[in-house]
Amino acid sequence: MKQFVKKIDLSTWKRRQPFELFSGYTNPYWSVTVNVDCTKMYQRSKQDGFPFYLGYHYASLRAANTVDAFRQRIENGQLVEYDTVHLSTTIARPDGTFGFSFTEFSDDFEKFVADGISESERVKKSNELFSGHSENNVIYYTVLRGVTFISDSQPYQTGSSVPILVFGEAFIENGIHKIPHSIHVNHALVDGQHVSQYIQLFQQFLND
Q: What is the pLDDT of residue 4?
């Protein structure tokens, strides 16, 4: 997988001051939880027979790749921006354990779904926790099945700059299928406007 990484010059970067401010915080992470209308994606998954979770993961990852801040990382004190970020999600196994998976993002929806299904089957047959992919060009995903939460918190490694995106169990409200979604980000890189942009794009791609 060929990956382009651009180094960002902090001396000329327009977000230098917020970056320096929040980088000095003991806890620079913040989060928000929203309910997203997933009716059209849910209906399509039932019609076409693909896993619903891969449908909304695709829409979410496509939205995240559209927002520069979601592709930026802090690595060894250097600010970098990846051209593409990929899917790293937890896969539950029949024995009650789980493993981390890795699926490359593709604009081709059918390819992404097929790769995601293959990776899920691989993880279910493994007893390893990690996928073997060690780069920061991912977004961490997890699904809390059976729970329609209204807030959420996640563990963070000190200094981590990889967003964590969490989904709950879909529910029906006034005939609309909705899914709870929490977004966890490092404020040194991601502001409210970036999260708002991501949410709007995510909804658009779910509808498309």
A: 78
CA 143 vs. chain centroid, Å, equals 11
CA angle 17, 23, 26 (to 5 degrees): 140
What is the pLDDT at residue 1?
59
* DSSP line for 15-55: THHHHHHHHTSS--EEEEEEEEE-HHHHHHHHHHT--HHHH
Stretches where the chain sits below pLDDT 70 are 1-2
- Name residue 79's beta-bridge partners: 74
Q: According to the model, what pLDDT value does residue 2 have?
A: 59
**Rounded distance between C-alpha atoms, residue 104 and residue 113, angstroms:** 10
CB 89 within 8 A of CB 163: no
- Domain 5-207 homologous superfamily, CATH: Chloramphenicol acetyltransferase-like domain (3.30.559.10)
Count of residues making up the chain:
208
- One-letter amino acid of 97: T
Question: 3-class DSSP state for residue 98?
Answer: strand
Do β-strands 29-37 and 176-186 pair in parallel, antiparallel, or remain unpaired? antiparallel
